[in-house]
Amino acid sequence: MPQADLPDRAIVIGSSGAIGSALRAALEARGLAVMGMSRSPVTADDLPIDLTDEQSIEAAAGKVRELAPFSAIYVATGLLHDQEVSPEKALRDMDQASLMRLFAVNAVGPALVARHFVPMLPKTGRCTFAALSARVGSISDNRLGGWYGYRASKAALNMIIKTLAIEVARTRPDAICVGLHPGTVDSHLSRPFQRGVSRERLFSPDHAAAHLLSVVDALTPSQTGRCFGWDGFEIAP
User: Which residue, among 12, 44, 38, has the nearest Cα to 25 in the 3D structure?
Assistant: First the structure.
């Protein structure tokens, strides 16, 4: 995408995370003014936001609405595991609390972000709403099983993005709404699962961010509503 076509303002939600902070730095290196938002703000100018709390999302949107339009909004958040949630190896490992939390962070949160932030995209001209998805959210590509909650919540996110893209296209025909699979990135999220990942397929956050922005650069509005991997290839639903 030519430099002149780049948006001059962007939002990165999850800007304190590995990929989010790298996306922010990459966008700023392109000359964009980036508003960072996260549960743990990094700078004094960052805004707090909690994707499991709609009031928090609405409040963050209200604080930047006067700066609109924002031509790029990235949701760089996701939950695979923490002290309370672990990927299920089998059916017996599932429990309601973990499933609900995975869906809250991975699907419901980005959907609510879209509700409150997409209206701040410009009505004309190229603009982007992108959320981090995952290849394991592909139903047709599921050959190993396991990871019920993470797979299902990312599949739900992909459907939300598809549905969002259809609606957004009615009023913003140049908009691109997509899910992005960053590959295996050396981060807290992937660290317990890196064994067996070859060195050339374990990306630094900066490398992953560069890949993802290159993918978005190459997309056209006709490709809205889909999910793309770091290599630019579409991931089947």
Answer: 12
- With beta carbons less than 8 A apart as the criterion, state whether 135 and 229 touch: yes
- CA-to-CA separations, 195 to 151, 192, 199, in angstroms, rounded: 20, 8, 10
pLDDT above 70 covers a percentage of the chain that reads 91
Q: What is the pLDDT of residues 2-16, one digit of tens each?
A: 344 445 899 999 999
Domain range summary for the chain, segments of one domain joined by +: 3-229
- Residue 24: the pLDDT is 97
What phi and psi, each to the nearest 5 degrees, are found at residue 129? -125, 115
Task: Report how far residue 169's alpha carbon sits from residue 73's, in angstroms, rounded to the nearest whole number.
Answer: 16
Residues 36, 46 contacting (CB under 8 angstroms): yes
Q: What are the E-state strand segments in 14-172?
A: 33-38, 47-48, 72-75, 127-132
Inform me whether the pLDDT recorded for 70 exceeds 90.
yes
Within 43-181, strands assigned E span 47-48, 72-75, 127-132, 175-181
Q: Which two tokens stand for residue 236?
A: 């089947």
Element (H, E) at 163: helix 148-171
The CATH fold of domain 3-229: Rossmann fold (3.40.50)
